[in-house]
Design goal:
The complex is a heterodimer.
Chain A (H helix, E strand, L loop, with lengths): L3 E5 L9 H5 L5 E3 L12 E3 L10 H5 L5 E5 L1
Antiparallel strand pairs in A: 1-4, 2-3
Chain B lengths: L1 E4 L18 H14 L6 E5 L14 E4 L5 H11 L4 E7 H7 L1 H10 L4 E6 L29 H4 L5 H6 L4 E8 L3 H19 L4 E7 L3 H4 L3 H15 L3 E4 L1 H4 L1
Parallel strand pairs in B: 2-3, 2-4, 4-5, 5-7, 6-7
Antiparallel strand pairs in B: 6-8
Helix pairs in contact in B: 1-7, 3-4
Classes of the chains: A alpha+beta, B alpha/beta.
Chain lengths: ~70, ~250
């Protein structure tokens, strides 16, 4: 299975959580250990090795926060 | 390593002013991606009227024109007729297109102007604070229908796509949604088709996109997506209502 890498432009994330629901491997969470410049807990990925690089999160994100690469 | 998804070059670096989870941003991305893929970004002109769409000229990397409330199709008509080489599109919400701009959209379709309209239907007035729109569903609570919309008082919600599909001049009418990755991909296809018809000179195309307004629906973004599926989709069925083959 292809392996992917997801990077977040954390500063512009509005914490809407829409990316969480569309991730088929459930690895996106809101990072409650930090608050970004907009005052939200930004989205982040736990267990990046599980990412399949499908791009669902990036397609869904209204604010173009997410970049997805596939190896 | 291949890039699966990155921010479209059709958008500027400006941060969107939309509320968290608002699907306006999703549709902005799709329009920008389509303009890039068709290689028409540098000769396209977007016309935005009044509503949450009104600040779009900061976000798209092409020429943009502000129009007065509901009059984007009229302004777009002028731009297209003066310079037919341009790719002209309007981006309108339901509080704009379905109410004050209803006459303009009907007649732009009736005349078969060679422009493309992106129509955001989120069943409410967004920018002005959540008032009842012509597209507000029966029973839906808004600031001007606090006990829910009733048929007796306000009539039934206006089905814009169905209405425009009865007009001969409209060559492409499709209703889509941005509630899931699969439907977002379908939305992009519909937008692309509408622009392709403009490029081939066929005529007017409109894509109605079911969208969310978490702030004025008083729901979280995730619950808004569910509300859209449970309430809007049964009343506003998705699908193509008119294609160039049917329009002949």
């Amino acid at each position: 299975m292809a392996k992917g890498k997801v990077t977040f432009n954390t500063d512009i994330c509005k914490g809407c959580e829409l990316c969480i629901d569309v991730c088929p491997v459930n690895i996106i969470v809101m990072d409650e250990s930090m608050i970004n410049v907009k005052g939200f807990h930004p989205a982040t990925v736990i267990e990046m090795e599980k990412c399949i690089g499908c791009g669902n999160c990036a397609i869904t994100c209204p604010d173009s926060v997410i970049k997805v690469e596939r190896f | 390593m291949t890039i699966v998804y990155d921010k479209s070059k059709g958008l500027t670096d400006a941060e969107l002013h939309f509320c968290p989870g608002c699907t306006h941003g999703t549709v902005h991305k799709l329009v920008a991606e389509v303009l890039i893929e068709l290689d028409v970004l540098d000769r396209s002109v977007g016309v935005v009227p009044v509503g949450c769409s009104a600040l779009s000229y900061d976000y798209f990397n092409c020429d943009m024109q502000q129009a007065s409330h509901g009059r984007a199709p009229a302004v777009a008509t002028g731009i297209k007729r003066v310079n037919p080489e341009l790719v002209v599109w309007t981006y309108q919400g339901d509080g704009d297109l379905a109410s004050i701009g209803a006459a303009e959209i009907v007649h732009v379709a009736h005349r078969g102007e060679k422009i493309t309209t992106i129509f955001i239907n989120n069943a409410i007035y967004g920018m002005t604070g959540g008032q009842m729109a012509p597209t507000t569903l029966i029973g839906q609570k808004t600031t001007t229908s606090q006990d829910g919309r009733t048929v007796e008082h306000s009539g039934r919600p206006l089905k814009v796509a169905e209405m425009l599909a009865t007009i001969d001049g409209a060559k492409f009418v499709e209703r889509v949604s941005v509630d899931s990755p699969a439907n977002i991909r379908k939305t992009k296809k519909a937008i692309k088709k509408a622009f392709e018809l403009q490029l081939s000179g066929e005529g007017f195309g409109i894509v109605e996109i079911l969208s969310t307004c978490p702030t004025n629906w008083a729901l979280t973004p995730r619950d808004s997506i569910k509300w859209l599926r449970d309430n809007m989709m049964p009343y506003y069925p998705l699908g193509n209502l008119r294609s160039p083959e049917e329009a002949k």
